[in-house]
Structures are given as structure tokens and as C-alpha cells.
Amino acid sequence: MCGIGSRRLPRARRIVGMSNTSHIRPRPRPRRAEVAQRVRSNSGVLHSSDARAAGFTVYDIAAAVRAGAIERVRRSWLVTPDCDPRRRAAATVSGRVTCVSAAALAGFWTPTGVRADERVHVAIASTAARVMSKELRLHWGRGPAPVGRNDNADPVLNVLFHVAHCLSRRDALAVWESAIRKKAVDAEVLERVAWRSTQAAELAAVASSLSDSGLETVFVDGLRRTGVSVRQQVWIDSRPVDGLIGTSLVTQIDGFAHHSSAADRRRDLEADARLIARGYIVLRFDYHQVLFDWPYVVETILTAIAQGAHQRRVR
Predict the structure, then answer these.
(1) Distance (Å, rounded) from C-alpha 285 to C-alpha 301?
(2) DSSP state at residue 242
(3) Mean pLDDT of 250-277
(4) Largest Cα–Cα distance of the chain, in whole Å?
(5) Which of 84, 124, 160, 292 falls between 20 and 30 A from 98, CA-CA?
(6) How far apart are alpha carbons 287 and 219 in whole angstroms?
């Protein structure tokens, strides 16, 4: 009897074990859509550790990837299929979109045409591995604002910091002014920032929110460097003019998206005619002249000043 009992005991244990498995709770349904929505709400890119911190499991993330709701980039980054390519590019090197790329994402004025840099500008840590890519413009310098380990885009102060180092002074100032106009940053705040950069500190001292566009900033700053003082947004004849030199020399700047309809053009001509009738001299320049034919602009204005166009009696 003992022999029989000893042989049945392991079998009885196996039966008990099999019975216990019937009480194991089934694995919950993977939250694929919820994971994708969380990534999308973060501008389409999220570090996997942040997804887990938000309560999603590895199983949830893997299921969302298998379903095509999100994609993996460099193992630890999650992006939506419609993620902005600049943000995706930054994730490939665990960096942050910065400089003109981030400025464009924010809707700031950025250079166009032959002076535009089509590469994606990405800020990476100084300790990061060296990356070679023709599609990326890497920024190793550290901006004045702290950043999170998993941030995908630089804060606006760091964006302006890199713009100051990457672009010409004229273009950089136009980007800074655009950020001020869009209320992304306050001019007084810029002056108080510890930039640790001569270029950025100089731009902070000059940046003004008076210009109606970044193009006007380029124009006014360029004239000031030649010794010509310009007052901006002066009201004459019940409407503001872009610039006034002396008492009577008016400058008007036609920007990138300047009025294209015949009615708009006639309205500008009528305004110029009214100013001329009151004794003002009106010089109108377009964006191409300001950005690509600056010597002509300066020569024209200096010639007008030499002829006394800025000191005429006006009504």
C-alpha cells in the first residue's frame, strides 16, 4: 500500500497544479489605440520610457507597433506614421529639433531661397556619439535653458541661441524678431538671459518688437549699421509707415507675402501718392532687394539723404 501511495502522490500534485491554472486571469486587451493617441498628443514622438511612465506596458507598446499605429525609431523612440520628418530625424540620433528647423516648426520667419539650409538642425548632448549624416546639421553647444533627457524639441531660448551662432547676424535678428512678434518670448526676457554667448547677447540688445516682419528688422538694422537712424511704425496720414528717416523720407518694405491683388497694389499706390502730396519722399523696396541687393538699397537711401530728402517741409 505504501508503494502504491508513494507512486500516486506526484500524480495528485500534478492534478492540483493543473486545477490552479484555471484561476489565472487572462492577459488584458492591449491598448493599442491609447498608446498611439498618447504619442500623437506629444507632437507625434515619445520616448518609450515616458510611455511606460504613463501606465502603458511593454505589451501595449509592442501591440501598437505590430498594428502599425506607431513605429519604433532607434529602439527607444516611438513615432506616429504622420510624425513631422524633422522630429523623426531628431529621434534617430536621440536629439532635439533646434535652430532654423525648430523656428520653422514654431512658425517663425526663416531664410528662404539660396540661403536656406535644407538640413534638419538637431541639438545633441556633448557626450553623444559622433554622428555623420548629410541630412542633419548637428549642434553641440548647450543653450541657456535646461532640457529634459527625453525632449524632442529645444525650448525657444535654446532655439534662438543656436540661431545666433548658425545664421548671419541679419537673418538671425529677423528670426529673433519673429519670435517676439508671435509672443513666443518677450524682448525684456531676452535681455535678462545669461546667454554665455557674445552673438546672442548682442542680438538680445538689438531685438525689437516694432518691426512688422522679420524683413523690416533686417532693413532697419542694416541702415543703423551704416549710421542712418530710422524710426519705425510712425503714423502719417492715419496709417503707419514702415520707416521714417528725418522728417520727410519714408521707406516702405514689401514682404514675402506682399499684397498680390490689383486692388491691394492700388491701395499702396494711393497711400504713396497721398504722402507725396503732403511733401514726403517715398522709397519702396521689396524683399528681394533688401535680402539680395542690399548695396543698391543703401546707395539709394544715402543718395536721397545727400539730396536733402529727409529734411523737407511737410504738411
Answers:
(1) 11
(2) E
(3) 82
(4) 129
(5) 292
(6) 9
Q: Residue 179 contacts by C-beta under 8 Å, 6 or more apart in sequence?
A: 103, 106, 108, 156, 159, 160, 185
Q: Between vectors from CA 228 to CA 225 and to CA 234, what angle results, nearest 5°?
A: 115
Pairing of strands 249-254, 281-286: parallel
CA distance 245 to 133: 48
Grid cell at residue 164: 545666433
Architecture of domain 214-306: 3-Layer(aba) Sandwich (3.40)
Angle between helices 214-225 and 294-306 (to 10 degrees): 60
For 85-142, write each residue's pLDDT tens digit. 999 999 999 999 999 999 999 999 998 865 778 899 999 987 776 677 889 999 998 8
Alpha carbon of 221 to those of 55, 211, 247, 294: distances in Å?
52, 11, 19, 12
Give me the residue spans of the domains in the chain.
32-83, 87-206, 214-306
Beta carbons of 284 and 258 less than 8 angstroms apart: no
Can you tell me whether residue 285 is helix, strand or coil?
A: strand
Residue 112's SS3 state is coil
> What distance in Å separates the CA atoms of residue 311 and residue 305, rounded to the nearest whole number?
8
